User: What shape does this take?
Amino acid sequence: MAVDQNADRATQAAQLAEEVREFLAAHDPATTEPLEFLRARYDAGLAWVNYPEGYGGKGLDRSLQADVSDAFAKAGAPDNKAGMNAIGLGMAAPTLLAFASEEDAKRLLRPLWTGENIWCQMFSEPGAGSDLAGLGTSAVKQENGDWLINGQKVWTSLAHHAEYALLVTRSDPDAVKHRGMTYFWVKMDTPGIDVRPLRQITGEAEFNEIFLDDVVIPDNQRLGEVGQGWAVAQTTLMNERVAIGGKVARRGEGAIGEAVRTWESSEQRDPALRDALLSNWVEAEALRIAQIRLGQSLAVGAPGPEGSAVKLGLTSLTQRLTGLELEIQGDDGLRYDNYDMRRPDLDKRWSRIPGFRYLRWRGLSIEGGTSEIMRNIISERVLGLPPEPRIDKDVPWKDLPR
Amino acid sequence: MTTTADVPVGGQYSLLETEDEKELAATLRGLLTKRAEWQQVLARTEEESSTDLELWKQIAGELGLAGLAVPEELGGAGASWREVAVVMTELGRATAPVPYFGSAVLATAALLHAGDKKLISEIASGEKTATLAVPFSAGPGKPFTPTVTVSEGRLTGSIPVVADALAADVLVVPAADGLYAVASADATVAPAVSLDMTRQLADITLDGAQGTSLGGDAVGAVHHALLIGAAMLSSEMYGVAQNALDTAVAYMKQRYQFGRLIGSYQGLKHRMADVSVSVSQLQAAAKYAAATAGENDPDLPVATAVAKAHASVTAPKAAEECLQMHGGQGMTWENPSHVMLKRAKADSIGMGRADAHRTWLGELIELSA
Assistant: This one.
């Protein structure tokens, strides 16, 4: 039985549920080898149902996915390393779907979804973070059509696990900065790619710096037209914000839940700290309700810049809460568990001590767009205030001060 | 499959305006734009009667909004507190000087709880204006103790800073053995010079005043009225805050300094972005509190404590920032900033301060002391 794409939503949901039941009957999660199960699920179009047929989906509405995911989770289906492959699933996949050749997209998306291939994105550089279009990693077209890449990337999560990467480069230094960029996908074992751990304030090396030294990339790994890398990057980044603003927590869960647990187990409670904690509880709940409202409003209209308000609110709340947690801990707040340099287990970050979270979450206001960029977006695109004056708009990239 | 139990708390209601609510808001806003432009509101504060009784007559009588929360069989419109919150938002946006809060919210909620049938229908029709004789600063987080004593049907005692008492025909007075209706003419209602000039307060003294017993459980009725009052005031405060944000942003788009629109300075834009984030949270939290009030949902106390605690921080902040963005002009009588600031700050104390709501919230969610 197939899902009728023209049927109404309720009918589609019912048909989908039936397909999931049939699939689970044919592939018992308890006895099927996990990878075989995941591959079969992908081939059945039950991986991400909003993707087109032949790409792990059925061309249905994105909102139907939650039910499918729930049904598989309840049946004890194997997971596809979603925590580890967040960049692959959230950002690389939609970019590949939109810009890769049909053949490449079909070949790359299946092992991406099953978790066989982890992806990372080589975007930021030491001189270009928030100002991504300022990047300088050079891509020079060779006589045989290949591209020769040289430069340095930084703050690259997961690069040490990744088989593949998205890569943005400067292909025309004479063009203005948003025009002279070109976008590729690349295998991480390509000669000339050197991934080095970058130790952070937590002691861990979750990020990497990457040196690109005469890396050769064939032209058929280009995503989008030459010089149109900025447009491709926008697709990636829009999907990043959707991923960050995504799921609404349950009341009392998330950073506020951690802080309340720390409070309940603390022996150094006092009324002033309690009021501070309650003040954050109020904001966490108001923010959560605002997220629900935003979701309802997106369901009846087009997505807009309002998601930036959620990211900004979540960021400042979470940072404040982890700071408060350390104070609530009193003497124990002075201790840290382990500054040894190591590669972290990203899935276990939430079970770390408050001190770790206090340090790590300082990055929330930087990664995925700094809080200052979010405030620019809100003030300009929600409130309609005048844009920042731009002195770099009409200047060739090579002539920009840096 | 998704079941109702899987919906996060808050998601069980639409937090957007329904078509009916949009229409209600538009009708009222249309009237207020004509009849309560901020200069008119400001001028009213210097007249002898601080309440705009003509406007109140239109809102309560002609538009029939005083009985929105009252069932039809009691002479009301049979809508709910959710619709009342829409009215409160518009009245807040306009800082309108009408006794809607005292009459259609506080007195109405208390009378509904007490089971009164006669007075409430007179209030719902706009025929009479009432208020609940409790201090505006009282909140739902602390047990209420009546300060008025009754002896042979005569009431004695005093209640300070009562909202909307100056325009009231009837005072609903809580005493130990129930609620009493007292004609304002039989009480001493002394106007206070109020921080918020658009909602003048009064000190009430009862010196053996004749009261009509309305029965009911006075402590329970007052608690209910303060709970509904705090939820509805949060919606009013959202209206004030949104107007303060809109006013500031509009000004920043036309005021030049150093050869640039001041709205193009990042230092100022970012402050408005922060206000906008808080106001959008307040909008959602107030809407949720109104929705729980409308459905008499058991989550009403938590929703209200969250909304009012948030409102009491956000609304004054929005108004303070509005004043600051206007520079020296913001400090003048001819600028709208002070009208909003005074309403926002007074409201932040009204129906319980932020800290009182947080303390109460701590009890409701059973957070250890």
Notes: Strands of chain B lie at 130-132, 149-151, 154-163, 170-175, 178-183, 188-191, 201-210, 212-215, 256-257, 260-261. Chain B touches chain A through 52 residues (CB under 8 Å). DSSP finds eleven helices and ten strands in chain B.
